[in-house]
Batch of 3 targets.
Target 1
Amino acid sequence: MNYEVIIVGGGPVGMLLAAELALAEVNVCVLERLKETTPYSRALTLHPRSLEILDMRGLKPKLLETGKPISTGHFAALDTRLNFSKLDSSSNYTVFIPQHDTEKVLEDWARELGVGIHRETEVKSISQDEHGVEVTAVGPEGKLVLTADYLVGADGAGSIVRKHAGIPFVGTSETITAILGDVVLTELSEPSIFSQFNEQGQIMVVPLKNGLHRIVAIDPERVHVPKSEPVTLEELRSAMVRMLGSDLGISDPYWLSRYGNATRQAERYRDGRIFLAGDAAHIHFPAGGQGLNVGLQEAMNLGWKLAAELKGRAPEWLLNSYQSERFPINTALLRNTEVQTFLMGSAFTSDMINVRCMLSDLLLVPEANYKLASQISAFNIQYASAADDLPHELNGRRLPELKLSSADGALRNTNAYELFRTGSYVLLHFAEDDRIRDVVEAAGAKCICLVCASLELEAPDWSDVHTVLVRPDGYVAWAVSRSESNPMNVIATGISRWCIHPSIR
Ligand SMILES: Cc1cc2nc3c(=O)[nH]c(=O)nc-3n(C[C@H](O)[C@H](O)[C@H](O)COP(=O)(O)OP(=O)(O)OC[C@H]3O[C@@H](n4cnc5c(N)ncnc54)[C@H](O)[C@@H]3O)c2cc1C
């Protein structure tokens, strides 16, 4: 069967990307080897920017049905927590939600949008030529050969797509491992959250659903045990007794696992008609709860670009901007997880305890705390402007939750994020100039939703904005200032540069 896009891997990244493509009316399928979403949740967090992008698509209420908002996060499990509540957003918290539940919400949404999801289907090989890709898989009914215009590997760390595309996974192998246990702790009378770093190791305890707690521990006596060696309850108990002075009545392990700090990034995220996203493109020590979050942001970045290419409206540079925008962000992500690994797992000495105390004190300085909170939450992202866009300080930044009203009454103190349900570009016009409609019409861009509005609440940096084009993933493509002498010309050129293929300009 022929598709426009085949996605290998139906984890969180594959499911969100599939939904984004289906929203843009792309014929897409997901090939996933598991029969159902795994009940063992690696990730437990959805950070503020991930929540914002999912809010744009109307999914936040669903996530909050099972997830619990927490206003703080952590960096290297330092005692001073990162304060997300200072972020300028109604999503100024992390949602504590097991990966299983996040995946369920994303899969349900993808199904609602008509994505063909083939479970129990394992991809065995892929190939490409200049016309398309071919995938061989084995499913419940035997061998399957599928073709598509493009293929995305969202198939996790061991990605077969990355291997068959010949893309090197550059970086370092694991030097330490940590242990994880989802267990019952009979000596805790109520759900508790705490962490401890001392000369015996580093340990975090977090409450889960169903009376379980998650324990993650870096035990200096066990850090060189390879990831492949199964964890025993006894091993976890012994680490707890040494680090906490008690095993807290540990029993009934639901899931025991070991994970490492291998840190790698795909040398490139694209090879011809093949793309990589999520763990297939980068791996690192799970510190600060970032991997899944970053993967979701990649899915949001790639979806609309791939759709624009397939629908013949993408400018020639757009699809390659997936790599140029996301690669440096993930390089920074790998560095921040390496620093955290160093602070949590390299030495359990009084010197390291002193370093951690000092850093923890520094995080009491609001500006320092804000800087790291905005990094972990991905609020600090600013994509580079397209080469020919007129400079404006908003270019490449995330759209904040502006409160908008319109003369026709359609918007009344409305959160701008509600304008992004359909995944179109949004052209926000604040200058009450009727010529804007003609400019949009003359440009012939069908993928733009024009909104003429006024700001209900003042927003920093927005008072001089005449018109702004916001991308489907909620970042500003370009903004035009009110002092611009010929704004309609600049707007027409900006629309043409971003939303129209040169052959039809
Ligand atoms: C202990 C631990 C804790 C973590 N905690 C957090 C956290 O709190 N917050 C956070 O953001 N991140 C966290 N992470 C990271 C997070 O779990 C991953 O980044 C995330 O799962 C990546 O999603 P993905 O969709 O890219 O890949 P995956 O979730 O790995 O999904 C890949 C999918 O592809 C399928 N697949 C693979 N090969 C094939 C094939 N050949 N054919 C068909 N299907 C295939 C797999 O079955 C799988 O379903 C944690 C990781 C670990 C190990």
Note: The pocket of flavin-adenine dinucleotide is lined by residues 8-14, 31-34, 42-45, 99, 122-123, 154-156, 160, 180, 259, 278-279, 286, 289-293, 295 (CB under 6 Å).
Target 2
Amino acid sequence: MSLVNRILKGVRNLTLASILALSVGCSSSSKVNTPSYVPQTKTYQEQNSNASLENLEEYLYSELAKRVDVNKTTTKPPTGQENAVDDLELRQNIYGQYYLTWSYKNVGDYNQDGIVDVKDVTPLAIYFGKESPLMPPMGWVPGPFWRGDWVDGNKDGIINVQDVTPLAANFGNECAGYKVQIYLNPETPGYEWDEIGFNLADPGFGRKRFWFHKLTGETIKPGMTFYVYPMDSEGCIYDTVASNRVTVP
Ligand SMILES: [Ca+2]
Ligand SMILES: [Ca+2]
């Protein structure tokens, strides 16, 4: 079934009863007629027992039906403050050469493939009911490189059906990489220095990470300031928000 048809089906299913039933992970159609609000205090096990990929997908389509213009198929880069990089760092390697590094941010892209779409429901089903940030693999210590919160779209500390809403709100957002911008000094306007493609992101074991090594000792001077913007596949950064800035000491 095409996305448009699934969304239209979502419209047909968009009744108060069905939303309430799905919002508590109810998979039985017989329960749709007797919805009841279950507060956040419901245990993780109870929520997990009712979470299915199908239920989450249907809830997503219902959410999309309320938001998406089904005739509009264009993508756009991740916009807004919630998608702005906030951990850009300027570091030096053992040879004294500077490089930039930052974490990938694209709310709703739960499978971290660069685009927010229906495939991002699958990680929700996998991690459903778990606390966020998710624990790193055995032997890894939580730290700046481990930001296991990429599936927790609403940042409430738990992976559940409420993380469908941020997915729907950002549906279609595409991050094809980042543009690296620079201020030569505080008195001059910033301009585009270079860019890095999404395919070069380090998958790691948690949130994807970018490492930008195209800074050379000859050109990097004290006072230079760097920041990054997410871009879509057309290089568009319209309405995106710049990262934090880092300055060469
Ligand atoms: Ca995705
Ligand atoms: Ca959440």
Note: Residues 53-67 form the longest helix (15 residues).
Target 3
Amino acid sequence: MKKNNYYWDFILVGAGLWNSIIAWYLRQYKPKLNILLIELNSSISKDHIWSFHQHDISSSQHIFIKPLITYSWPSYQVKFPKFNRQIFSGYYSICSKHLNSCLKQNLGNNNFLFNNKTIEIITPTSICLNNREIINANCIIDGRGLKDFQFKGVYQIFLGQQWYLSSPHGLNIPIIMDATINQKKDEYRFIYTLPLTPNSLMIEDTRYTKKSFLTPDMLKNSIHYIQEYAFKNKWKLVKIEREEVGCIPIPFKNKKIIKFKKIVCVGLRANLFHVTTGYSLPIAIQLAENIAKYSTTTTQINFIFLLKLVKKFIIKHQKKQRFFYLLNRLFFLSNPRSHLDIMQYFYSLPEKTISNFYANKLSLFDKIRIFSGKPPISLFQALHTIFFKFIK
Ligand SMILES: Cc1cc2nc3c(=O)[nH]c(=O)nc-3n(C[C@H](O)[C@H](O)[C@H](O)COP(=O)(O)OP(=O)(O)OC[C@H]3O[C@@H](n4cnc5c(N)ncnc54)[C@H](O)[C@@H]3O)c2cc1C
């Protein structure tokens, strides 16, 4: 073993969304911290766009992450067979390439270990690489993404294509859900479109389905949907600039035990995501802020303290998710023919309830609102779904 006597303050394992945000926050709050970011791939989390809503984070958090934001829009729209609606809340996106370059500028090249060195062992305060080199830190943060996530639920699967158009598309704000497309009986499907530049659009075919990946037939069908959608909107597609395929779990129930093994875990590794939308960027910002604030209160980072802080955060997060697990069960175990009606009903609710839903901040009043009025599922259907279908 090659033992290295140098101690980093933090080693962040996995330069995905969460550890990148944590590195950014730590650097902003305490520039003198020594942070090492280790990634399996050659850059940050492949080629990705992560979006969030204005009210998902506080105004001070907006100021902090402003340099990371690649695209922003003052509002967004949704489209359903019965109505189109513009929602007057900002929408923002961060591109992994931009995040990568911001971090490199901020941390310096010596703080990155990319590629070719796989991690063999992780302990709370050290890692062992495949060349048998040991690197020490006051605290290791494991953000290596999903691992053997076994759950009861469905998946959100995507094919997103960023297209260059021969003429301007004329779209000024994102369409985060266009559900006017043909629906199949066993999935809920919509198109998500982000106008990136006047001639460039990100068009994503999104489905909530029982399948965890796009089969070749589904992929072909998604490409066809995207092209048909562009044609319908008179967008002349010229060249694909970027493509992303992905899958997010949408669970019906909380996993009982989070196995920590005394290592600080974050992000998907720690089950930290909004269980209905599958998104996690705003939650990452919140935890990154908590960790960074802690780092300013001490001269030496203590992993035991951080472990407690992160565990507390996870438990609080899981409590907030209970209502979303219930919504997932109601939505996905109900008759698939009512999926569109449920979504349409949801987007007819007041803007405040919609933004609280995305922000993980539903009040009791919002929850009552979601189930009052004329929801497309009757109380009887809901109880049947919760108690019988789920227990089966
Ligand atoms: C198509 C798609 C679109 C999405 N859009 C959004 C969105 O708009 N907004 C949003 O909030 N969320 C979105 N999500 C969800 C979001 O991507 C995840 O919640 C988020 O990436 C989780 O972050 P993470 O850091 O836990 O994991 P990841 O971002 O997956 O990062 C894990 C990193 O660890 C690295 N790694 C793995 N093993 C090792 C190892 N042994 N050594 C070193 N490195 C390792 C991986 O290469 C990876 O870079 C989307 C997901 C998909 C699939």
Note: The two ends are 52 Å apart (CA to CA).
